[in-house]
């Protein structure tokens, strides 16, 4: 074996050992039901920005994949779980506009309304500051898809994290823009993407550079948005009127290395957050819980080895279990199932992770 081949083999072996060690450590933590890769091999070199939805026929996951982020060959890939295992990844969307013109795809977001077609939002364009929103739908749980259509000018759809269904049936889509500073806003559709309204940006992009919100539900029609910032901590904002208007954006005590997060309000009223609890790098990847959205408790560590573990998506399925997907070293998509009733919660004074 030549020197280069020996080095490659050594790197692969070290990665395998690291993955096995982390899997063993994760399995020992309370509340972990299962941990798996959605695929082992795929016809693309890198992947990123996962999303999850539960349909009547099983889970669906999507992400963007290609040579590397931003390359023209990056498309939207998808896999389905039939209750026994994940299907092989298939490309369901790309940025081909003509034989001579192709753009990269970005940040898919799946959403299954209570009544309606499975929706797949994604972005197409040269960069996050110049991309535009696209939407497809599926009648059969993601097996086949409608032709993609471009969203109205100025509407991006949910930028990274899932929409939420409001009491009136409308979808509130947490979104953001990067063309004039990092600014968060919210888009609303009452007819599953046919017509839209949107709020103004809730921050100026200067004091706090904020993107990629998630939305949590609180009593008395209050909503909480939180997400990624450039300031070294997560940000939050609150709405007292179901998302029509928003209060001042503030930084939270929890650290953030300028990396994507996701969160969900559980059926028992608690809130579950997945994020990188660090000021630098994209490891570790952590889960925290809160009863009020203000005091967060350490729950478990999904990954803590060197490398990138990032851009999580999180949903709660009908059986009460929590499903998390995330980028695993830009090589594969990881899927972890949790029982939120069995998590071991510890206080985090001043945002310091509790061992």
Can you tell me about this structure?
With 355 residues, this protein is mainly beta. It has a single domain, classed as 6 Propeller (Neuraminidase). It has 1 helix and 27 strands. Strands 20-21-22-23-27 form a 5-stranded antiparallel beta sheet, covered by helices on one side. It has a 4-stranded antiparallel beta sheet with strand order 1-26-25-24, with helices on one face.
How would you summarize the topology of this molecule?
Elements: H1 3-27, E1 32-37, E2 46-55, E3 58-66, E4 75-80, E5 90-93, E6 96-98, E7 101-102, E8 105-111, E9 118-124, E10 132-138, E11 149-150, E12 164-165, E13 171-177, E14 183-189, E15 197-198, E16 210-218, E17 222-229, E18 233-239, E19 250-255, E20 262-265, E21 271-275, E22 285-290, E23 297-303, E24 309-316, E25 322-328, E26 332-338, E27 346-347
Antiparallel strand pairs: 1-26, 2-3, 3-4, 4-5, 6-7, 8-9, 9-10, 10-11, 12-13, 13-14, 14-15, 16-17, 17-18, 18-19, 20-21, 21-22, 22-23, 23-27, 24-25, 25-26
């Amino acid at each position: 074996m030549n020197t280069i081949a020996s080095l490659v083999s050594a790197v692969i072996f070290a990665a395998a050992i690291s993955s096995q060690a982390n899997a063993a450590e994760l399995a020992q933590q309370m509340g972990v039901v299962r941990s798996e890769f959605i695929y082992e091999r795929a016809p693309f070199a890198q992947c990123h920005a996962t999303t999850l939805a539960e349909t009547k026929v099983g889970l669906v996951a999507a992400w963007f994949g290609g040579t590397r982020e931003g390359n023209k060959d990056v498309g939207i890939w998808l896999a389905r779980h039939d209750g026994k295992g994940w299907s092989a990844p298939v490309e369901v969307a790309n940025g081909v506009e003509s034989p001579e013109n192709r753009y990269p795809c970005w940040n898919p977001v799946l959403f299954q309304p209570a009544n309606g077609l499975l929706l797949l939002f994604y972005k197409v364009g040269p960069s996050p500051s110049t991309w535009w929103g696209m939407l497809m739908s599926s009648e059969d749980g993601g097996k086949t898809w409608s032709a993609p259509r471009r969203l109205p000018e100025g509407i991006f759809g949910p930028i990274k994290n899932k929409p939420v269904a409001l009491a009136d049936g409308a979808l509130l889509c947490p979104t953001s823009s990067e063309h004039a500073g990092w600014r968060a806003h919210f888009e609303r559709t009452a007819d599953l993407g046919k017509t839209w309204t949107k709020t103004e940006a809730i921050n100026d992009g200067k004091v706090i550079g904020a993107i990629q919100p998630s939305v949590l539900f609180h009593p008395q029609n209050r909503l909480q948005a939180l997400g990624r910032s450039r300031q070294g901590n997560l940000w939050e904002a609150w709405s007292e009127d179901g998302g029509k208007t928003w209060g001042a954006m503030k930084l939270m005590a929890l650290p953030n290395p300028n990396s994507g997060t996701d969160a969900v309000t559980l059926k028992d009223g608690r809130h579950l957050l997945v994020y990188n609890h660090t000021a630098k790098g994209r490891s570790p990847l952590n889960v925290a819980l809160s009863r009020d959205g203000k005091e967060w408790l350490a729950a478990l560590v999904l990954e803590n080895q060197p490398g990138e573990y990032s851009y999580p998506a999180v949903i709660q399925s009908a059986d009460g279990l929590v499903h998390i997907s995330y980028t695993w070293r830009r090589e594969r998509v990881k899927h972890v199932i949790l029982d939120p009733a069995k998590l071991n919660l510890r206080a985090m004074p001043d945002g310091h992770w509790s061992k």
